Structures are given as C-alpha cells and as structure tokens.
Amino acid sequence: MNIRQVVNVVAALTVVIGLFILSAAPVAWMMGDPPDVVWKLTASAAVAIIAGILAFALSRVKRYRLGKREGFGIVTFGWIAAAAFGSIPFVLIADLYWYDAFFETMSGFTTTGASVLDNTLLLRSGSKLPLGIAHLPKGLIYWRSMTHWLGGMGIVVLSLAIIPFLGIGGQELYNAEVPGPTSDQLTPKIASSAKILWGVYLLLSICETLLLLPKMPLFDAWCHTCGTMATGGFSTQQASVGAYGSVYVDAVITLFMFLAGGNFVLHYRALRGKPLFHFSDEEFKWYLFITLGAIATITLALATSSAPIITTTGAEVPPTLFESLRYASFQVVSILTTTGFCTANFAVWPSYAALLLVILMFIGGCGGSTGGGMKVSRFLLLLKYGVTQVRRSLFPREVSNVHLNGKRVGGETLHKVLGFFFLFVALFVFFALILSCYPGMDFATATSASIAALGNIGPGIGGVGAASTYAWLAPSAKMLLTLAMLLGRLEVYTVLVVILPTFWRK
User: Fold this and answer.
1) Which of 31, 62, 313, 470 is spaced 20 to 30 A from 185 at the CA atom?
2) How far apart are alpha carbons 219 and 92 in whole angstroms?
3) Model-level pTM?
4) Residue pair 368/180 in contact by the 8 Å Cβ criterion
5) C-alpha closest to that of 231 among 288, 179, 174
6) Best CA proximity match to 302, nearest among 243, 346, 333
C-alpha cells in the first residue's frame, strides 16, 4: 500500500469535514447560541482544516495511482479521521469525554443513530448533562445532524463529486464505500456518478424539509430530514419523532424513510421520466413486499392486544386499528431501513411484533440505499442459492443458475455474498458475547446492542431500547460498538481487509 497517497487523500477529506463543521458556526449565530459556541465551532473547524492542509502539503504526490489497497485504506482511515475531527465540537461545547464524543460522531457518520446524550451522561466537569439533547446549543445539534447527512450517501462519494483529482483511480474508493453486493454506476466517470447520486439525495432532502415545515420549525425540519434521508435517526428531541405527536409528521417521515431505504439509482431513473422503473427491479419488489407484510402482521398483533401502545413520551394510546397501523407502519419502516427513529417503545409490544422487528434489523434496506443491515438483495440471493442447492440434492445433474433481474449472478458474487453473511453473523455473535460480559448486560440488551450497532440501526431492546440511550455503557463497551458501527457501514470487508497483516506487506 502506498501510505503517502492514503495520507494525502485522507488529509483532503479532513479539510472537507472541517469546512462542514465551519458551516455550523453561522447556524449557531442565527439561532441565538452564546458567542462562545460560535467560536468553539470555528476553532473546531480550524483544527480540522489546518491539520488537513498541513498533512496534504507534507504528503503531496505528483500522480495518483490508487489500487485496491489504497482504496480500502483511504475509505477506512478517512471515516476514522472524519469521526475523530468531527468529535471536537462535542468535547469543546458539550464537555463530553473523548470516547463519548467519538461514539456520538461515529454513530452520526455511520448513520447508526445510537446516542449517549441524556440527563444521566457524566460530563468531564463531573456534572450530568441536564435535559439531554434539549440542553445542547442549536449549532451543535445542527452539526450532529449533518454528520448523518454527510455519512448517508458517503463521505468519500461526496469528496469524489467535489474534489476533481479524486476522480483519478476513484473506482476503488467508490466500490469500497457504496453499500450493496454490487456497485451500480450511472456513468463511466466516477465523479459524474457521485454528483448524480448526491443530486438526487439533495433533491429528496429539500422535498422532505418543505413537507415538514407546516408542523415544525425550519431548523427541526432540516435536522429530521438529515436523520431520515441518511436513515440515521438523530432527532432534535429526546423523545425522537414521537415528541411531536403528529400523524402528518409520522406519515411524511415514514414515506421518506422508505425512499431512503431504496436504491438511489432507481430514484434517479424514476426522476428521469420512468416513474414505474422501481417495479422492474426484483430487489425493490421484495423490499416492498417485506415492508407491507411486516406492517400488516404487526398491526394485527397490536390491534388484537389488550395492552395500550406506549409512546416515547410515556403516553398510553388505545390499540385501535388506525393507531396500530400508524405506529406499526412507522416502526417497521424505521427499523427495516435502519433509520432508528421512534414514536413508540416497541420493546414492550407483543412478542411476535418485537421479534419481527429484531429480524428486520438484520435485513436492512436495498443495495445502493443509505440503509444499513445485510441488504435485501443479499437475502434474496441467499434464498435463491438455497433453493438451487435443495433442487440439486434431488436432481444432481441439473444446471442451477441464480438470476437477479433476469441476469445470471456469477459464482464470484455469490461467494462474496456467502462470505459476507458468515462474517456479519460471526461479528454479531462476537460483539454480543463480549458485551454480555459487562455488568448490567442481560441477553436482550447485549444481542440487540450488537445488531443495532453492526446493522447501523441505533435503538435496540432492553437497556438500549427506544426509551433508553447508550450513556450507561462502560467506555470500553462504547468503543467496541464504535468499531461495530464502522464495520457495518463499510460493509465488513473494507475494514477487515485493513486489519489483515498481508494488507501491509509489499
């Protein structure tokens, strides 16, 4: 691996992150934050920008020749650098310990949405964070939401679109960051594809913000849009979206969470005059089928239960058919797309509903979406491959091919899918076992925290459920989950490759 090239490109990414931190300073000023908040945001940005410029100058190269190793290295270390420099405002302004700040920022960039911010969090001063999120300055809440929005489509993909020189050899960077078993490329040029994807992403973000304005201020509307389109889940309210108690808000966010969990290439084709193009894609049809099936069955489970629906504000709602459909729809789409917004405490729902939601955490959204999890396409390929193996046990000489969207899927792709499935499950078990060794960790909390971090979902059940945060975890447990978030967001292979000793050998 050419370390000099990796450092050079990561330095450029750091400058980009610094500029976005700087954009939070005028927001803080306009929202009436104290002057010291504006200056601390400016200072945080300055640290990132100056460090990036110095590293870039010291590692300058004449020509970029980025291979697979450089691609994996840039993406992995680029995300770590983004989380490290992006955590500075949380340390300076919110007085968080470095590990809490790093956890919160990595959770933001990876669009996990797991948070440590509540009134039980111990600060460096020795006091507790009063009122949780509501206590934070608006400028910091804005930056917290922007980490979602930037990480949703991908930090490196953004940089490919706005930094011209990364277009040289950018294919390896694009493949290492774009989620899904295959990378859908819209144009021969990587930079052009990146610009198109970000253009669709921005357009949908603007549409959602405008639709939310009738029920919430512009600041809240944009912050919730960041959490929705990135399938992240950070809210401006401690009680998440449930704090608004609005059917209209629930419906708008549910719609855009569903869109964010779909392949953005399909959205682009639809916007180009093919509105029914989504239904020509096999993965999307299964994504829709899973969503509607889960909503229907959980609605039935809630409606036939005698227990009331407990909202995130603590209110009790009678389980009528309409209310059951409302809360089931929101929570199914939120969990399947790995957004993590909450309107109800689903941990106390009937066992079938809670278990199905946990299963949905493993599935995730579509390939090419901002969602996490294993992706619908991988499960579909695994299902088809399993069926072919069953048929071959009966007809050994049968030539069994796996097809997706009418095209044969090669053996190399199937092997990658099988390998990913094994590694994902193995990592889930590994993290759950380690977490179970910590005091206060019961089975439900350890297992759900593991999949919630690895699948980039955010809330789990038990001690990390919709009514809780990750503030009470030990610092080492938070760092373990931070690693799980990064592994999940970068599709496992990208990070694990960097850990291999052979990666560093010439």
Assistant:
1) 62
2) 22
3) 0.93
4) yes
5) 179
6) 346
